[in-house]
């Protein structure tokens, strides 16, 4: 049996977070009644003309800078001509020969290894509308309904080189890209609403074969799980087909989540002659250096840079730093917590955010943005652990109280519940003397060499103080008294 | 009244010698009487026009009239006008009542001009004879057996027969200038980008430009003042300071009014291909210009003979894409019977478009299709550059280029309808101007066998005011433009 | 060069215009005459000439990212009043296959 190499390239359509459409003043809001956000330009009345949205261009520039690409000083909008009912003009305004963003790369993590994925380009284009095949409770008598609310929503199409070698790599890339576009604020990343959709070009070839195999394009993957399943199925199908002596025909396929299979699309049989030509309604887009520099100065610190800083300045492990910079929200949450707790508690903050907080969020299926415990509250809590006011065990109780809304700040809960650790030797001294007197048998066992008895005594002491005693102090004092 | 210039009409309205309602009614009556002979109008809405006239009268009564307030203007049926049937000469839009106004319509509304009706035109402006209209051909008022020219044939016939004081048109390859020449009118195509294309149904976006059709250069200046101006809804609209295009017309000049003007005569305009009678009239007009003080020099536009070929690649290419929106889904004609989506598209478009439009869509689709793009479309764009460069070189030597507008006077209805290539070649002198994006005007320069001929004046970018002045000075010394056809008294 | 009947049919399908065989033959003749005219430009050496896509050499103007529409329900009614077939605010077409 031959060994096969998988070759994958990804095209991603990221809806840009603008208020209005790319070429019209209609709202881009999701979820409105059909054709409510479809104005004269969007429904392509005779005579209407497109005018380019500045914010859409800014989003493209932000992206280009974030992936180290070059921003084209001059790029051109072209018409991609084909007939489809959700495409009102009979052409899509896109970019073809001269895109706005050229090159760039994205660093991804697959298991323990890192990989640099080269980007070919990113270009601006308009989204199409939607064809609804089953009416929302209506009967369309074997017809489709066309909703043009989405038509004209700005998209950035981001294209990779065929650099990915497995479904896992493809998913890792998609996740990293998803995090990045949200990080730099150009896309809300809402995959359910179609704000971030991927097409995967998949082919296989015998290991060592220099040229690529024939590829099939899996369209519209709108979850990472489906991407993994679809590519896994497609790869296995292609290999099985070739090993059976068949050959792969270039095709566009859809993934059916119910069957877990991919199948070729029936429509667009002549879709391959798009007759691109420069749109005569839109002069070339020119972007000067000053504009690019201004946008560069407004970019947030990028994940890779922040990760390096967390390792260097906060002493986090590479793993912790990577997890925390996995999303803009998580990173921002963490930075706020550290700002409150103090830099000396940066490591402890990471432990809390990635430990107790993450576990609890996960259990209740919540996102960091929906956390009942704010970054400020976590910071306040970690600060009290750090300065010895409470133990980690007590801190968990305080965390529970914060989670359930039983208090607004850790300090308030600690004070109200009297949870401060007892660290002063005077009061501990008296308590321990009483304890030793009452547990003479245990003291004897300890003196006979049973270390276990010592732990039991510490336990008794903690119990007597309802956990508030500083365990280290208790231990130190006990040793002093017994030894 | 029907021979009044726009300025004279404005004075008559301002002095209350006549009301806008009376003036509008006068023209509506003339249309009712004569339009059936000419077929110049597709849509008349007397009530709508008179309502606008009443509003204009109220404005005039308040002393708030402008140069066009209350004056009825006919609009080519290519301009979307809210509440008006807007057909573009096509069956495809035979039921299209526009839900919005084109920028040009809005500008005339702002000026409180009265919309007199929508004029006939070649289907989607594709034609040079007005014979491709779904609504039937238009007859030339000078000879009803002849074409009025196209594609703005209805506008030209209406103004020539005094069924409108003035009209709008559009010019993609000569569609204002050629009908102006064939109907004894003054018609101007401004610099590309001077008038907003918003709401003007696109034929070839990089070539289309609106403009006035009127009885004199002075009237054209008044219309252009109303039509021109920056529009942020059109990305190709040019953001330039507003100007008075008639500013040079009023100036009094001591001695010869055009002294120092250098007129370029391209050899390519004066070779074979032009009918000798038209050429004779052009030569005579040039003699008049010399008398006005102008100097004529020889210039060359070596690539001009390629303009028809380049145009018949670029214009159909853009049109094939521009007309893709007519698919029977959101507006316009949908075939009554079909068996699936593709069939609905194919039948709606086959039935909704006429032969010439379909022909151009097929040419355009072909030249853009895979494997042919470089040889046709890209090559045509390079030749377009060569033509624009030719003009740039010529304008470094002269101020205005003059030649014939059309190689012949009006031809017979049906004469060229069966021969597209012959029809295309009738635009040989006008097409290059659109490719370069330059302004040009056609003015009457005499008659041959009772049919008018046109003189074309081409200027450098943004030289509209000068062009209008050069035309105006000729019209002050020559009365060709004042002549009207008989039979429409 | 001259076009073939097959090319005419392919282009007509790309353009979504139904043509029957008879029409296609007639169209073929016409198109070939026109292409003979167009062929004139093939002889011209345009090496190094920058293609001219637009009449004016200007840069793209950009609009502010602002929503300009209000009363979209009335607007939709006005737009759909002239539509061939609508239901529940949707434009209806024969079933779209994927």
UniProtKB/TrEMBL annotation, chain A:
<dbReference type="GO" id="GO:0050567">
    <property type="term" value="F:glutaminyl-tRNA synthase (glutamine-hydrolyzing) activity"/>
</dbReference>
<comment type="function">
    <text>Allows the formation of correctly charged Asn-tRNA(Asn) or Gln-tRNA(Gln) through the transamidation of misacylated Asp-tRNA(Asn) or Glu-tRNA(Gln) in organisms which lack either or both of asparaginyl-tRNA or glutaminyl-tRNA synthetases. The reaction takes place in the presence of glutamine and ATP through an activated phospho-Asp-tRNA(Asn) or phospho-Glu-tRNA(Gln).</text>
</comment>
<comment type="subunit">
    <text>Heterotrimer of A, B and C subunits.</text>
</comment>
<dbReference type="InterPro" id="IPR003789">
    <property type="entry name" value="Asn/Gln_tRNA_amidoTrase-B-like"/>
</dbReference>
<keyword id="KW-0067">ATP-binding</keyword>
<dbReference type="InterPro" id="IPR018027">
    <property type="entry name" value="Asn/Gln_amidotransferase"/>
</dbReference>
<dbReference type="GO" id="GO:0005524">
    <property type="term" value="F:ATP binding"/>
</dbReference>
<keyword id="KW-0547">Nucleotide-binding</keyword>
<protein>
    <recommendedName>
        <fullName>Aspartyl/glutamyl-tRNA(Asn/Gln) amidotransferase subunit B</fullName>
        <ecNumber>6.3.5.-</ecNumber>
    </recommendedName>
</protein>
<dbReference type="InterPro" id="IPR004413">
    <property type="entry name" value="GatB"/>
</dbReference>
<dbReference type="Pfam" id="PF02934">
    <property type="entry name" value="GatB_N"/>
</dbReference>
<dbReference type="InterPro" id="IPR014746">
    <property type="entry name" value="Gln_synth/guanido_kin_cat_dom"/>
</dbReference>
<dbReference type="GO" id="GO:0070681">
    <property type="term" value="P:glutaminyl-tRNAGln biosynthesis via transamidation"/>
</dbReference>
<comment type="similarity">
    <text>Belongs to the GatB/GatE family. GatB subfamily.</text>
</comment>
<dbReference type="GO" id="GO:0006412">
    <property type="term" value="P:translation"/>
</dbReference>
TrEMBL record, chain B:
<keyword id="KW-0547">Nucleotide-binding</keyword>
<dbReference type="InterPro" id="IPR036928">
    <property type="entry name" value="AS_sf"/>
</dbReference>
<dbReference type="GO" id="GO:0006412">
    <property type="term" value="P:translation"/>
</dbReference>
<comment type="similarity">
    <text>Belongs to the amidase family. GatA subfamily.</text>
</comment>
<comment type="subunit">
    <text>Heterotrimer of A, B and C subunits.</text>
</comment>
<dbReference type="InterPro" id="IPR020556">
    <property type="entry name" value="Amidase_CS"/>
</dbReference>
<feature type="active site" description="Acyl-ester intermediate">
    <location>
        <position position="175"/>
    </location>
</feature>
<feature type="active site" description="Charge relay system">
    <location>
        <position position="151"/>
    </location>
</feature>
<protein>
    <recommendedName>
        <fullName>Glutamyl-tRNA(Gln) amidotransferase subunit A</fullName>
        <ecNumber>6.3.5.7</ecNumber>
    </recommendedName>
</protein>
<dbReference type="InterPro" id="IPR023631">
    <property type="entry name" value="Amidase_dom"/>
</dbReference>
<dbReference type="InterPro" id="IPR004412">
    <property type="entry name" value="GatA"/>
</dbReference>
<comment type="function">
    <text>Allows the formation of correctly charged Gln-tRNA(Gln) through the transamidation of misacylated Glu-tRNA(Gln) in organisms which lack glutaminyl-tRNA synthetase. The reaction takes place in the presence of glutamine and ATP through an activated gamma-phospho-Glu-tRNA(Gln).</text>
</comment>
<dbReference type="Pfam" id="PF01425">
    <property type="entry name" value="Amidase"/>
</dbReference>
<dbReference type="InterPro" id="IPR000120">
    <property type="entry name" value="Amidase"/>
</dbReference>
<dbReference type="GO" id="GO:0030956">
    <property type="term" value="C:glutamyl-tRNA(Gln) amidotransferase complex"/>
</dbReference>
From TrEMBL, chain C:
<dbReference type="GO" id="GO:0050567">
    <property type="term" value="F:glutaminyl-tRNA synthase (glutamine-hydrolyzing) activity"/>
</dbReference>
<dbReference type="GO" id="GO:0005524">
    <property type="term" value="F:ATP binding"/>
</dbReference>
<comment type="function">
    <text>Allows the formation of correctly charged Asn-tRNA(Asn) or Gln-tRNA(Gln) through the transamidation of misacylated Asp-tRNA(Asn) or Glu-tRNA(Gln) in organisms which lack either or both of asparaginyl-tRNA or glutaminyl-tRNA synthetases. The reaction takes place in the presence of glutamine and ATP through an activated phospho-Asp-tRNA(Asn) or phospho-Glu-tRNA(Gln).</text>
</comment>
<keyword id="KW-0436">Ligase</keyword>
<dbReference type="GO" id="GO:0070681">
    <property type="term" value="P:glutaminyl-tRNAGln biosynthesis via transamidation"/>
</dbReference>
<keyword id="KW-0547">Nucleotide-binding</keyword>
<dbReference type="Pfam" id="PF02686">
    <property type="entry name" value="GatC"/>
</dbReference>
<dbReference type="GO" id="GO:0006450">
    <property type="term" value="P:regulation of translational fidelity"/>
</dbReference>
<keyword id="KW-0067">ATP-binding</keyword>
<dbReference type="InterPro" id="IPR036113">
    <property type="entry name" value="Asp/Glu-ADT_sf_sub_c"/>
</dbReference>
<keyword id="KW-0648">Protein biosynthesis</keyword>
<comment type="similarity">
    <text>Belongs to the GatC family.</text>
</comment>
<dbReference type="InterPro" id="IPR003837">
    <property type="entry name" value="GatC"/>
</dbReference>
<comment type="subunit">
    <text>Heterotrimer of A, B and C subunits.</text>
</comment>
<protein>
    <recommendedName>
        <fullName>Aspartyl/glutamyl-tRNA(Asn/Gln) amidotransferase subunit C</fullName>
        <ecNumber>6.3.5.-</ecNumber>
    </recommendedName>
</protein>
